[in-house]
Amino acid sequence: MTSLSNRGYGIKKTTDNIDLINKIKKELLISPKNFNNSFASSETKEYPIYLESDNKLYVPKCYGIEKFGFPVDDNLNSGVDCPLLEFSGKLRDIQQEPVNAFIDTVMNKNKLGGVISVPCGFGKTIMAIYIACYFKKKTLFISHKDFLNEQFINSIKLFVPEARIGKIKQKIIDVNDKDIVIATLQSLAMKDYDPKIFNDFGLVIIDECHHIASEVFSRAFRKMNIRISLGLSATLNRKDGLRKVFEWYLGKSVYKMKNNEKECNMIVNVHKYFVHNLEYSYVKTMYNGTINMVSMVNNVCNYKPRTIFIINLLKEILINEKDRKILILSERKNQLKDIEELIKIDNIASSSYGYYIGGMKMTDLDISATKQIILATYQMSSEGLNIPTLNTVILASPISDIQQSVGRILREKKTERKYIPLCIDIYDNFSIFKYKGNKRINYYKSNGYIVKTYIDNELVSVDNNDNDDDNNNDKKKCLFIDDE
Questions:
Q1: pLDDT-derived band of residue 222, with 50, 70 and 90 as boundaries?
Q2: Confidence of residue 466 (pLDDT cuts 50, 70, 90)
Q3: Any idea where the Helicase ATP-binding domain is (predicted)?
Q4: How many CA atoms lie within 13 A of 269 on its CB side?
Q5: SS3 state at 173
Q6: What DSSP character marks residue 419?
Q7: Which residue in 24, 307, 475, 479 has the fewest CB atoms around it within 10 Å?
Q8: Strand, helix or coil at 248?
Q9: pTM check: above 0.85
Q10: Helix, strand, or coil (residue 327)
Q11: 38 falls in which pLDDT band (50, 70, 90)?
């Protein structure tokens, strides 16, 4: 017999289903594909995402429903009614479709959850608030970053001004007589709260939900089971292959939208860069012969002539279009510091710059958001950076996954843009960085962006990604040069 409770989806143990129970436990013993920075796989720690008693095996809610159907015995609380959850805004037509897809999944298909995946700038927060107001159940909002929680609180105050807002963080447990409670994923995962504090919730919303697949963060969902679950993310796939984990807890994607050429209309300038200097291009390896990626990225980011090259591109952009608002991204804070020094020396943009990195207070992040140039880490830009006026991004260090980073400059409506969004891609033309660069270029092309390739600051090719055969001869002119 199957059941649904605050412990999860329960499967009763019998003498007849021992093999099935063991099979389920094996499937729910998670072993991530762990690729370190040298691209070599290494041993990983396995962890279970099930609970077990003498009589029952408890598995993630949506895993159980998918495998065995809706439970025979449903004891899971539907949540406290919250009539004060009245939405005072209005969704755009394009936002209504994913919202309707989620509501239909929950109401008509007995799935009890799902994930909405839309590009950065699409309005995930306002859609989540609308959904909370639709169900009018006590809602738990979870994210892994304080500034994301602050953004959500501000949006609640704007669109649901009568809502009573609570908090769960470390020792703070403010949940009584609240309509929406904001919680940090770290606290839920690491602290043992009284399970009863979750009994009144009828809806849980998890921002950047791909994070809950990790061993640490998945602990949070072994401690609670809320009837309706909504995941939000612009990035469904994980490098460790654990997309299935958050889908087992929250439900599968109910709506996925990709950027397209008509919506985005971006220009990408790919600058192929290489110099024969061991401080920059030495291919370092580990003891086992695999590439030492951490060390090589350090060399690339620390190489001052390359940073000066980036600064010269920055100056050229502002000479031609002086009001562009620019996001400069790097994996290394020391590279951002070098860029800052050169900005100050040359008084670029009247030294109107600010940082957007981990550990900063929300008030300081808000101040940085007003600057013309923003120096940020990829991690901070990929989740929660919400500055609609950005129209230019410079990828200062080499990475592969740039979907969310690029999405940060696509938030302005096309009709309100002063400039076409511009991405400056520094393509380090050697070793493993060529693989990363090619992956980025494939992403640009798949989204229909105009890709211009430069070598030694000279334009060598233009790819308009125009699929209209009648216009290709006029619009698409490419010169192929062997740059090896």
A1: confident
A2: low
A3: 105-254
A4: 20
A5: strand
A6: S
A7: 479
A8: helix
A9: no
A10: strand
A11: very low
Residue of 403, 125, 90, 373 lying closest to 264 (CA atoms): 403
Token pair of 320, please?
A: 């031609």
For residues 347 and 379, the model is more confident at 347
The dihedral formed by the CA atoms of 383, 330, 241 and 287, expressed in degrees to the nearest 10:
-150
Which of the 8 DSSP states describes residue 84? Answer: T
Q: What's the half-sphere exposure (Cβ side, CA atoms, 13 Å) at 403?
A: 19
- What residues does 81 pair with on adjacent strands? 137
pLDDT of 43 > 70? The answer is no
Both tokens assigned to 172: 């703070």
C-alpha span between 133 and 202 (Å, rounded): 12
One-letter amino acid of 232:
L
Q: How far apart are CA 186 and CA 219, in angstroms?
A: 10
How high is the pLDDT of residue 413? 75
Domains, the chain, in order of start with CATH, read: 76-256 (3.40.50.300), 261-475 (3.40.50.300)
Q: Are residues 120 and 208 in contact, defined by beta-carbon separation less than 8 angstroms?
A: no
Rounded CA gap, 412 and 323, in Å?
A: 15
Tell me what pLDDT residue 5 has: 93
Distances (CA, A) of 51 to 21, 29, 224, 440: 12, 11, 11, 41
* Amino acid letter, 478: C
β-partners of residue 166 are: 181
| pLDDT bracket for residue 161 (50, 70, 90) | very high
Please say if the pLDDT value at position 218 is more than 50: yes
* Residue 396: HSE in the Cβ half-sphere, 13 Å Cα cutoff: 37
Q: Identify the three-state secondary structure at position 331.
A: coil
Rounded to whole angstroms, the Cα distance separating 73 from 435 reads 52
Contacts of residue 348, defined as CB under 8 A and 6 or more positions apart, other chains included, come to 311, 314, 315, 318, 342, 373
Return mean pLDDT, the chain: 88
pLDDT for 324 = 95
Report yes or no: 131 and 230 within 8 Å, Cβ to Cβ.
yes
Give residue-wise pLDDT tens across range 2-36: 999 999 999 999 999 999 999 999 999 988 765 44
Our separate counts of H helices and E strands in the chain read 17, 23
Listed residue (382, 395, 399) closest to 436, CA to CA: 399
The answer to whether 348 and 315 are in contact (CB under 8 A) is yes
Q: How far apart are CA 396 and CA 376, in angstroms?
A: 10
Number of Cα atoms under 13 Å in the Cβ half of residue 373: 23
